[in-house]
Amino acid sequence: MVDVTLFIKQLINGFQVGSVYALVALGYTMVYGIVKLINFAHGDFIMVGGYMAVFSIPLLTSAGLPAWLCILLSVVVCALIGFLTEKIAYKPLRGAPSLSVLITAIAMSLFLENLALILFSSAPRSVSNIFHVPPIVFGSVQLTGVSVVTILLSVAIMAGLQLFIKKTRMGKAMRAVSEDGKAAILMGINTNRTISLTFAIGSGLAGVAAVMYCSAYPQVQPYMGSMLGLKAFVAAVLGGIGNIPGAMLGGVLIGLVESMTKGYISTQLADAVVFGILIVVLLVRPAGIFGKNIGEKV
Amino acid sequence: MSVPVLKAENLGITFGGLKAVEGFHVEIEQKELIGLIGPNGAGKTTVFNLLTGVYQPTEGAVYLNGTALIGKKPHQMVAAGIARTFQNIRLFKKMSVLENVKVAFNHNMKYSGLQAILRAPSYWKEEQEIDRKACDLLSVFHMEELAGHVAENLPYGQQRKLEIARALATNPKVLLLDEPAAGMNPTETAELMQAISLIRERFGIAILLIEHDMSLVMNVCERIVVIDYGQIIAHGTPKEIANNPRVIGAYLGE
Amino acid sequence: MKSRKETMRSYVINLIAVVLLFVLMNVGTRTGLLGRYQTGVLMVIFINIILAISLNLTTGFLGQIALGHAGFMSIGAYTAALFVKYIQETVGITLAQKGNVSPAGTGFFLLSLLLAGLVAALFGLLVGVPALRLKGDYLAIITLGFGEIIRTMIEFFSFTGGAQGLNRIPKTATLNVVYIIMVVCVMVMFAFVRSRHGRAIMAIREDDIASEASGIPNTYYKVLAFTFAAFFAGIAGGIYGQYLGILGATDFDFMKSIDILVFVVLGGMGSLTGSIVSAVGLTILPEVLRSLADYRMLIYSVVLVLVMIFKPSGLLGTYEFSLTRLIDRLTGRQKKQPSAAGKGGASE
Question: Does the N-terminal or the C-terminal CB of chain A have fewer CB atoms within 10 Å?
């Protein structure tokens, strides 16, 4: 059967793209959980990470270092940008109507995209090979090294994140602030620091995702993060926004659905299907797979 | 015996297995003023939410002039004749005092969107009519001078009164007031009580009042219903209530 | 509030201003002061005004962010374009040729806009009924989703020209006709928001629980506002297609929706005159400051953040400009007004 090969190929693709979505969705979900803000600029952090890879890989290789070290630079720069975005644009609006906060988030996204447009022009830049891993062959099925690395790395990161949140002091503080910010302050938790940390970690994950994405689709341009970010956001909503395991599951599901649509229905319709899922989820179960519904008090 | 204006029969609601209100029963005659009291968290506001369609009761029903109101949304309850105010004032903050009242006339107005766009005679006629009616209503509360002010700039006591004026603008048969005197000083409270008696006389409506200020409730209400843990624990005249051991127990916390 | 006589007076004053502008515009085009380039800019301004005021209805007056306005615009654009193309190419009535628009062309142009508005409104209704069950962030996201789906669908189907786009659309949009349509749209919108319907919509924005408790059927009015806004977005799209002569689905992506949102937010959420001013200003500014054109979006984004931090309701807030008030002030007729005079919709 020829179809089995195609199916497995799409499956692996789906898991690979899905891991990237999952990492990005984690950023959305962590930030939403803690400040109830859809960080529209989050997708653009991926673009920032992508440019970091573009510029650092030639330097690394000329210094005789492995190309994958660019991941460190990407994570650090993304974390820093996430941290600054929160401090400069979102913090002054804490407690403001959600309309203002949403518009600010959209504006930050525009800002990053257009800054990149001016600095780097709209022409796509190509990324050189990041992971030099040989493909793995099972009979007629061939797994690219990149997909294996991507999937394994994101599983490792998610496990690490889960441990961090469940076990460490800072992780507990993050959960406390997202549960009830005011009560957390009364308990002596430094909410500002916790929020900053959440932004930094979430954005750092986008940095990892950026490098993974670039290793699969080695092209970087100013608007690359926009659609990628939106789909990852759909993943976060699907899993239940604010819910960390939900974001992981949502990311993988969206990746699989997209990959299968591309493989079996139409490449053009992939985006429409993803947004269709968003609409169905929002209408049928707005709290997502793992979320809980909260009514408004009268 | 005449049909009560408002009757709640065996009203109850369950939230996730927890009975928030159970077997609530009340009958209010025209022009009657009834107090609904109870300790914090007893379910008073939940009763209001049941009576106004914010929550759909899991058992029992609400009757207005003998007609059951089942499955109605809040705006349909208003159209039927049940109006309310809120514990923590909910005004249309950025709109003028006059506009706040005018909004509440909407369901009794007829001109269509097309007639509005074309500025048909019916638009002018109805708009002028409700301008006049809204001003009349404001004057009951001595607020006609404030008509052009933005609602959120009013002092607290005036905001409470505006909310009542807005509720009255819906032309209700029953008015539910949720702690109307909360946060008011004694002078303001006295003024408010005068206004409430005036409304009762002038508009001939029945009033159900949630209030924490016991002396106030005892002074103005003909009858009082006391609830605790979602259930009625006493029902009677102020005098009966004041001497009821269960009520004293509930308030002092047995 | 003002008496009917005073209101009539302000209507007359505004009508005179509208006619005056029309005459000035025609003097400009006849004498050649307004060339091809300038009339093109004017056309874009008129389209943007319609887009901005229509989105203001949902975002400013109803208080809900919709990020799919470009989707409704595209539906109008394609509906109208396919209609006039059909009339010219299949039915064989010449509508526009080499810059000349036949009388039939103008007739069918108007008809196509009506059609564009209605089809867009139908989609507005279809999207609005489910989407408006949500609020705030979620509504923003779901409208964005619908907008993107509309765009991908236009690219997917072949009757819309697919990804290549639609071309050879009869260019039936003429400056004078578009000006009149814009004025009518603005008047209709003003009349609508200053009626019991507009009041109900604003009440929902202020407090949706209180509005429902005041007898306002929230869902009905939310859907009404949304559908109405989609109707006008459709008209704007219809004009756009028949002005340019070509359409592509990418003209109506998420960025276009954001562009329109910027007009509304900067002009003031809940101020129709504010939307008009910002649509005019933000269309002209990048044209005048050509050197800054590349930085346009960057500047917008910074200004947006600053406005949100320092003046969240937009530059004008809900304040409406009034020619009548200006004239009264200049001629000393101004009476002392209570503080709320001039607030959006407060005075007729």
Answer: N
